[in-house]
Specification:
This protein is 17% helix and 37% strand. The protein has two helices and eight strands, in the order βαββββαβββ. The strands form two sheets. It has a four-stranded mixed β-sheet, covered by helices on one side. Strands 5-8-7-6 form a four-stranded mixed β-sheet, with no helix packed on it.
């Protein structure tokens, strides 16, 4: 039986650019970085108030490039005040790609595009 979720892996073309985005835009912390036995460059990002991490993986030279399909997957993060969070993003040079939109449950959601085409959902709960 599964005990708990440890991490989610996302493959990217530019590890440094992607890690910088998650640090600068969302305030995630780099917990460790190393090269895997297969030669992939790995970086693990800590998410606030959660044990799970996000693993960012860049394969060695010669591997096929990452091409993220639209709406393939996304990460979702809760924020206290979406309007204030979006204003801070704008000050840092990032823009929402969709929203804010009020949902039927009373939450407010918006999206920001991460490098490689991955989406990040921001949720302000009711």
């Amino acid at each position: 039986m599964v005990k708990k979720l440890l991490h989610t892996r996302m493959r990217v073309n530019d590890l440094a650019r992607t890690v910088k985005f998650y640090q600068d835009a969302l305030g995630l912390k780099l917990s460790r970085q190393h090269t895997s036995p297969r030669g992939a460059q790995l970086a693990f990002l800590q998410t606030p108030n959660s044990d799970e991490e996000i693993e960012i993986c860049q394969m060695p030279p010669g591997a096929p490039a990452v091409q993220v399909q639209p709406d393939l997957m996304h990460l979702a993060f809760e924020v206290d005040d979406l309007e204030a969070f979006a204003a801070e993003l704008k000050k840092k040079g990032f823009a929402l790609s969709d929203g804010p939109t009020k949902t039927g449950s009373g939450s407010v959601i918006a999206f920001i595009d991460a490098p490689e085409g991955y989406e990040v959902e921001l949720i302000q709960r009711k």
